[in-house]
Every structure is written in structure tokens, then in C-alpha cells.
Amino acid sequence: MTSLYDEVQAAPGAGVPTRRVTIKVNGDDRTVDVEPRLLLAHLLRQGLKLTGTHTGCDTSNCGACTILFDGRPIKSCTMLAVQADGHSLETVEGLASASELHPIQEGFKEEHGLHCGFCTPGMMLAAKALLDKNDNPTEDEVRWALSGNLCRCTGYQNIVKSVLWAAEKMRAESN
Amino acid sequence: MYPSRFGYELPKTVEEAVALLDAHGGEAKVLAGGQSLVPMMRLRFAAPEMLIDINGIEALHYNRVDADGTVHIGALCRHEELEDNPAIAKAIPTIAAAAPLVADPIVRTRGTFVGSVCHADPQGDWAATMTALGGHIVAQGPKGKRDIPIADFVIGPFQNTLAFNEIAIEAVIPAPKGVRVGNYLKLERRVGDFATASVAVSLDMKGDTVAYAGIALAGVGGRTINANAAASALVGKKLTAENIASVAAAVAAVAEPRTDHRGSADYKRQIVKTFVERILTGLLNTSQKAA
């Protein structure tokens, strides 16, 4: 069965007008030819094989596709891939180094911040955007920052704890 | 779903963007934040042949307050740039109150104030806010610029009065007649959902007398509800419990709520009345404390 997401290929067919874009993804420049209607989330997933960015809802509600665009969180299903030309993206694949997890990832592990894991990449990037601006958020501020990301498993309690855990660890590391 | 196929242009100036719109004769759409347009294109409610992406026009990316208190919001000013913004909070408290309630925090990093006004969603926070403030939109077309008062701009659900070859480049909120105070209240079942009811109130005060009063509603009708006529009963008067109660009742009467899964029409009308009373009473209490 062909999924809806296979309808537009990251590599378009012959005769379809494309634009060449160069996007910095997790620090590396990637140059690709894209059809204007290709959504950024699907360029990441299909074109660049970075399948950590999830697409959940089709309507910009769920936040599973959240990535950082020049350091600010965006819903990558609601941006065209052509719009990322010349910009810098960070996805969940960019969080961990070869040898160790990012403190936010560690926090989700320590505080059991995920069940099924579908929303987790978006949650972690939204959390990173918060912690990059505010290294000592209150619980309310964490809940506020994550209010554009839906989770259908956890009831959010452990996600919030995970982010607070990460904030504490990141503060300790920077001291 | 995927959008249907379209062409894409990335102009560097407003003039270039206007020329592109003109050349495509009504088949092109302007892409600013894209937080409404892209989902609509995905659902194929919208299927423009050409997208004119104005995100490359850096000259449209600003918000500023003039010395006299006039506020200018450029077409690329994102919602989040109006949050935690001391100059805006001082100049227009209603915008500062509404900004954190627009959509969700991630949508707010991309979506734009002017784009939201142009979209003219009956649920839109900014069309209601602009209506309460009595602002105008600056449109630029092939023959130059013109000012369009908000009441002549948002004329129905998803309907604005831009010509096909015009771009809304700026929203302008006039200088206050005195000290501008106001607030915005929104009831939503969860962040990012359509509002059950929203109320925007802005007053200009000369001492303890109301010099301007604007009220508009979102989510309680098939269009942005302009309740400025009801609000104008306050002009020339002091805020009192009696005035507040009568204006709240008059505003609730012009709401056009419909019963749906967010609540009954009566319930929504009651929310409007309560929110108007709550906002005006809050403003009265604050002014009494200051005096």
C-alpha cells in the first residue's frame, strides 16, 4: 500500500520543476533538489533518511515533527523544504554525540519520560529550545513551553520531570 | 495530504513581490508564516498555482513604537516577537495579553501578526484585537500604498479586501487618546484548540474618564465580531460597576455564538459577558490602586 507520504517523493520525477537548496542539518551542509511542495518533515525523513523527526497529525497540532530552525522550534510539517534554503536545522539525531546522550535524552531515560516514544523527538527539541533560553525553568514554564506538543501516553508528568532533570544536569555541567 | 503542485518565488523586495502577484493574476498567494496557509494547502482547501514567499524581504521584519505611541507591526513580525516585549506591553496591553494565547508556542515562532489578520479566521485573535484597537492595514500594490481601516479590511470569514495584486505590508495601531489600557481573555479547552470564546478590550483613559473604548470578539460567530458600537457607551464616562454591567450585557447581545461541541450558544454568550465584566473590572481596580 502506498502511504500518503509517498505521494510526493523526496526525489521528484522527470519534468517536475525543482529548486536546489542547501540546508545545514545537524552541522553538515546538505544540498538537494526539491519540489516546492515537499514538506520539510518529509525531506528530513525520506530525502535525508533522518527518521527521528515524526509526522503525527497533518494539521500542525501535535508537534511530533518539531525541530530547531536557526535555533527556534518549528513544526517541520508546516514548512516547505524550499524555505529552509540557507538555514540551519537541528533534529533529534543531532542531540547525542557518538559516545554520550544529551542531558535531555538522559533526563527522559532517568525520569521515564516516554512510553511509546512517538512524541519524544518533538518534546526533546521543544525542551531544548526552552533550556537554551532559560536554564532554570519552573515547572509552569516547562509545561508552557511544551504546550504545543501532544503526548497520548504519559499524561505529561514524567515528561515535565525529565526536562527539569535535564535543566538541573545542564546547570551543574556548566558550573 | 500533500499540497497540489505549485510554483515558488522568493522575492527580495516588496516591489518585486507585488510584480509577481500582478503577473499571476489572482492565482498566486503570499506565504509569510504559513501556519494557516500550509495546513490549508495540505487539506487542499487552498490550491494556489504560485506561492510568493515574502520571508526573504527582511525589510518587513520589525515592530516598533513611535514617540507618540503609534505602533507599527511589519508583515514578518512573528507572534512570539510580541510576547515578553516591554515596548509593546507598555504601548498596547491588549496585544501583550493576547500574544501568549495565540495558537501554541511553536506555531508562534513562525506565524505572523499581519498574516493572521489577513487570514480573517473568525477564531483569529489578532483580527479581533485589531478591531478593538481600531487599527489599519497598509497595503502595497502596483500603484503604491493605501491604508485600509480594519473594519473595511476584515469583512467576513476568511475574507479581506486586499486586491489580488496587493500585499499587506504593515499593521498600524494609532496613538492612544490618553493612556491605553486593556486586556485579552480566551477560553480554550486546550492550548492550540479553537477558542470557545475570546474577548479583546482596549480603552484610552484621560484621567479616570474613558476617551476611547474598543471591544471585539473571536470564536463566537461566523466572523470577527465588532462590538465597538456597544463599547462606545463608555466614552466620556468613568468606569463604574453599573457602566461595566450594562456594556457587558450589550456586548454579549451582539455576539453570534452557535452551539457546538465547545459549548452551547447560551454558554458562550455568558462567557463573553463574564469576560467583558472581568476585564473592565480589572482595569477599574488597577486604576483605583494607581490613584
Automatic annotation (TrEMBL), chain A:
Pfam families referenced in this protein's UniProt entry, alphabetically: Fer2, Fer2_2
This protein's record includes keyword Acyltransferase: no
Domain 2Fe-2S ferredoxin-type positions: 19-95
Membrane-spanning segments: none
InterPro entries assigned: 2Fe-2S-bd (IPR002888), 2Fe-2S-bd_dom_sf (IPR036884), 2Fe-2S_ferredoxin-like_sf (IPR036010), 2Fe-2S_ferredoxin-type (IPR001041), Beta-grasp_dom_sf (IPR012675), Diverse_Oxidoreductases (IPR051452)
Molecular functions per Gene Ontology: 2 iron, 2 sulfur cluster binding; metal ion binding; oxidoreductase activity
Keyword list, A-Z: 2Fe-2S, Iron, Iron-sulfur, Metal-binding, Oxidoreductase
Listed name of the protein: Unannotated protein
Highest classification ranks of the organism: unclassified sequences, metagenomes, ecological metagenomes
TrEMBL record, chain B:
Record GO terms (molecular function): FAD binding; oxidoreductase activity
Domain FAD-binding PCMH-type: from-to ranges: 1-178
SMART domains assigned to the protein according to its UniProt record, in alphabetical order: CO_deh_flav_C
InterPro entries (alphabetical): CO_DH_flav_C, CO_DH_flav_C_dom_sf, Diverse_Substr_Oxidored, FAD-bd_PCMH, FAD-bd_PCMH-like_sf, FAD-bd_PCMH_sub1, FAD-bd_PCMH_sub2, Mopterin_DH_FAD-bd
Record flagged with keyword Cell membrane: no
Gene3D superfamilies: 3.30.465.10, CO dehydrogenase flavoprotein, C-terminal domain, Uridine Diphospho-n-acetylenolpyruvylglucosamine Reductase, domain 2
A Pfam cross-reference name: CO_deh_flav_C
Entry keyword Oxidoreductase: yes
SUPFAM superfamilies: CO dehydrogenase flavoprotein C-terminal domain-like (SSF55447), FAD-binding/transporter-associated domain-like (SSF56176)
Keyword list, A-Z: FAD, Flavoprotein, Oxidoreductase
Name recorded for this polypeptide: Unannotated protein
